[in-house]
Amino acid sequence: VIAALPRARDRRAGWRERARGLRGRVATTPGRLQLLFWLLAAGAVLLGASGAAAVLETGRAVDGLGMSAGPAVLDARKLHLELADADRFAADEILIGPIAVSSPRPRYESDLKVATDDLETMAGRTTSAASAGLLQILQEQLLEYAGLIEQARAISRLGLPLGAAYLRAASDLMHRPAGILARVDALGALGDQEMSRDDEALLLAAIALAGYGAIAASLLVLLWRTQAFLRRRFRRRHNPMLLVATGLVILVSGAMAVTVTEARVALGSARSDAYERLSDMWRAREVAYDADGSKTLVLVAPNGASAQRAFVAAMRQLVDVQLDTPGDSPADQKAAGIGAADVADALNGGRVRFGGLLADELQHATYQGERKAALAALAAYQHFVQVAAKMDNQLQDIGFGTAVSTVTSDGPDQLPSAFLDLDSRLQEVVAIDQQRFDETMRQASLVHDLDVTVPLVAIAIGVLAYLGIRPRVVEYRT
Amino acid sequence: VKLHVLGAACLLLAACSSTTPPRAAAVSHPSVSASPTPSAAPDNSCGNPRASLRPSAPLPQPDGLPAGTFMQQIRARGKLVVGVSQDTLRFGYRNPATDQIEGFDIDMLKAVARAIFGDDSPITYHVITDQQRIPAIQDGSVDIVAQTMTINCVRWKQVDFTTEYYDAGQRVLVLKNSNVHGIDDLFNRRVCATKGSTSLDNIVQAASQPIPVAVDNWTDCLVALQRGEVEAISTDDSILAGLEAQDPDTQIVGDRTSDEPYGLAINQAHPEFVRFVNAVLERMRADGTWAATYARWLSALGPPPSPPPAIYRD
């Protein structure tokens, strides 16, 4: 310890000596100029880094909604309705039997192919282990499902009732709690989770933006002081290079403030309005496909009560009113009457006195065309519900064969045409919401214009500082 | 790669239409039944369960039905509402080729409709599960149920029965390569039956202690057997014969372990309708319609036996 004491004293003395030397150099004009240059260069680097961080993190959140998490949720919704449709048409084929003039088989095959292709695309795009795991299970379940449907078809064509049992097993695999559709919905939920992770990117962007503001202010002060120093020492009015650098700092900071703020506002609006509307309308289509499929399953499963419950639950997500179904209690029948009157009133321009996805769309419609499309969807919903009730009554009063005809025939006032109309109306609303979402995202995506601009401007500021100060150092020495 | 395999498999499966379903190893979905609880002795509180209400008069003409009776109400309504199965081959099943529900049970109902309306077309079929038979009768959503329904004293407390129209007995259906030869070989093995059937009660009460597995429909049991989810199906030999006919790789084994007399079920509020239907059945037995119906639907089970005799309690 005693031996180490002199060495520590020597070190401290060395530092003091170096600090004295530095102060001496800075006290000279070229030393001060060199110090100012390095400070400006460091400021430019920090400005570029913090600006790039703010822009990139905001851009990441924008891309998350517009290109990653958002599409993942919508892709899952699309996959859900394709598979529900496939199940519906597989059931139709068994219900109609081999004597059918037009077979629902091509529609089933087409749905299954599109769904399989979509799964392949999703599997190729996913980067998350959880999604990859779900997609693998889905692929296996879909293989099992297709096998069961083929069994059902082959056996039914022999005229044996066992075919319907295989169809029920397949539909159970599609609709049960851990079944195919539930896993597709879980995929969508993963997309939602990913979207909430984008909030972290927005927080980082806000921190980086605050840092950028502080650095930009410091840099402006430094540039002003450098300008003042040069004016004093070299008797020149302005240093043009430093003046340009100051202008660049002000310009890029203004652009940053405007663009990033606009992007954040657009992103917020996209999330809370445009995307929510779009996602809800895809959900409405998904729900309509579920409801349509349930009506076929009511006929395939002799205890069709659970399928009937699924139909009612699905329809109430669209419009939250009591539905008129056979065997209802008088209180339920009364509620169904009120619900039907509420829907009719809304269609006649009255107040929307019910909840559900279509009610939300009506209430959030921002222009006449959008409201008109939502009302057309509501009218199509009303017709679909009426045809479904007709089928219930046929099953109750006339018989199975007539109900099968209503569910599978193509004519007017049959379920397929009523559903087709409902789905096409919902697609029109989806198209309007998609357009609004795309416009909002296009505005938010302008933040990407600054991806390269900010670092380039930072480099330019550094170069301008060098070009502005270096000639003065040389001039002083000569 | 998996998706390509899936697509190829879809095409392959579409190309093949095997008559013998393959046995896919799969996850089990039928539920293991927790009820009914086994009871040591059968309920004989009703005396002879086969005994029904005696026809009060000769069968009237359709246009001469007694006023104020349930038959008259049905005629005035213009349709007989019936509860049937759509998947019990030979008794009540929907023929995919004709889109009609057909079978031995259905012909019994058509005879009742003919007696009320003069023809058998005004029938509305409600397809129900075994479990829904008694509730459907009790809540009046159907007038009569013909669905391989065993007459017993427990059920007599809930609904009325006609006289016996078919005599069945419980046996076991297994895969041909199974080492099960009867109900006694089913210790700790999963055995399928439908919810609400006497077959399920009998499985629960079997001395060999099988594990009962309950599903909604008999064909669901066959799917479960083919997929390896159960090792046997145990129910009436008449139903098993229909299942066996749908899968040549299965066989019925063992002796009858119970008597299962089938009757048509009717709401207890309409004893006159029970007497009326018994008169219809009496006529079917006497004029050879029963034997002809048996020959039409059940000839695969053997030559037509004598119709089950009508037994009356008053």
In short:
With 478 residues, chain A is mainly α. Chain A has helices at residues 4-27, 29-96, 105-125, 129-156, 162-175, 180-234, 240-300, 305-318, 330-347, 357-364, 368-398, 400-408, 415-444, 450-477. Helix content of chain B is 32%, strand content 20%.
Description:
- The complex is a heterodimer of chains A (478) and B (314).
- Chain A has 478 residues and is mainly α.
- Chain A has helices at residues 4-27, 29-96, 105-125, 129-156, 162-175, 180-234, 240-300, 305-318, 330-347, 357-364, 368-398, 400-408, 415-444, 450-477.
- In chain A, α7 (240-300) packs antiparallel against α10 (357-364).
- The longest helix of chain A has 68 residues, at 29-96.
- With 314 residues, chain B is α/β, with parallel strands linked by helices.
- In chain B, the strands form 4 sheets. In chain B, strands 1, 10, 11, 12, 13, 14 and 15 form a 7-stranded mixed sheet that branches.
- In chain B, α3 (104-117) crosses α9.
- Classes of the chains: A mainly alpha (478), B alpha/beta (314).
- The interface between A and B is large, with 53 and 53 residues.
